[in-house]
Amino acid sequence: MSYIRFENLHKSFGKNEVLKDINLEIEKNQLVTLLGPSGCGKSTLLRCLAGLEDVTSGKVYLDGKDITNVNPKDRDIGMVFQQYSLFPNMTVAQNVAFGLRMKKVPKNEADEKVMKMLENVGLADKAGSYPAQLSGGQQQRAALARAIVTEPKVLLLDEPLSAIDALLRRSLQIEIRRIQREINMTAIFVTHDQDEAMVMSDVIHLMNKGKIEQSANPTDMYTKPVSKFAASFIGHYNILPAEVFGKLVGEDLCCRDVVFRPEVVEISASPTNEEGRYYWQGKIIDSLPHGNILRYAVLSGDTQIDVDVLFRSSMMFDVGQELFLAIKKENCILL
User: Would you state the pLDDT for residue 17?
Assistant: First the structure.
């Protein structure tokens, strides 16, 4: 039985329907990501689970219980926001202990829990510091510790890393994942960053215009998009109307769109001929390095195809060069 369940959930603000018939199940001890563009409803869904927003219709279940109308403080859910909201007049230890004080946990037990949690997040040496004395990453970890120390049934993270620089952000992604696994906590992470979702998640739920567009593990989400929106949002796909792609490769295709990754396209200066592949020609119009990847923009007819190859001298082509493209048919997704 699922640990968290949304059943026919709708949420409207006046005439604006933000969530539309959400049916979603989340298993215990998973880190699940709600991914999607701004305004798709992912934060609203999180807030409905926390009880910070009333649902218009539908049900929310946690651990087998209907919590749709339960007071937020009685839901046993921890939350970390984009703005960490640490109490500026309290030390790190006092901030982390706040929830335990509200639950009237004995002081000796609370102190022990706080120090153990600060060790977990690497802030044991900052217990006596105030928020203003911490870096952004340290404040994020303090907020995380404060949310986790009360041992909630679920931890909700609403874009907590979006205001942090890229290098620290990658480090904290790994840190959050490590802590979640060590304490076997069920967590729901909200982000619009598909790379972040790929790194952190057991399961990704991709949202679009108030609905769940696709639910899958990161590998399947990356390699098996179920719609044009999913293909355009996750990673970087070449997306061509079937009629256009069919003319390039000389075949009639019974679908609406053909999508394929830049890295599965093979390019060469001379033609090849192997079974199970599509072939066509093109001309390089641009090249752009992406770390160890070199991305070529290849013009075939009036259509641009992006092709990724490892950045090495043996695979260098010049802008303006005519070449041949090939792709295994099994690497084309027909939508």
Answer: 96
SS3 at position 29: coil
The b/e string for 247-270 (b: 16+ C-beta within 10 A; e otherwise) is bbbeeebeeebbbbbbbbbbbeee
CB atoms within 10 A of CB 90: 14
Please, where in the chain does CATH 3.40.50.300 lie?
Answer: 4-233
Q: Which fold has domain 238-334?
A: OB fold (Dihydrolipoamide Acetyltransferase, E2P) (2.40.50)
Helix axes 136-148, 92-102, angle to 10 degrees: 20
Q: Which residues of 132-162 are buried (b: 16+ CB within 10 A; e: fewer)?
A: eebeebbbbbbbbbbbbbbebbbbbbbbbbe
Q: Is the pTM of this model over 0.70?
A: yes
What CA–CA distances, in Å, run from 64 to 1, 193, 260?
Answer: 8, 31, 41
Return the DSSP state at 240. E
Task: Kindly give the parts of the chain with pLDDT less than 70.
Answer: 313-315
CATH superfamily to which 4-233 belongs: P-loop containing nucleotide triphosphate hydrolases (3.40.50.300)
Pairwise CA distance, residues 329 & 224, whole Å: 14
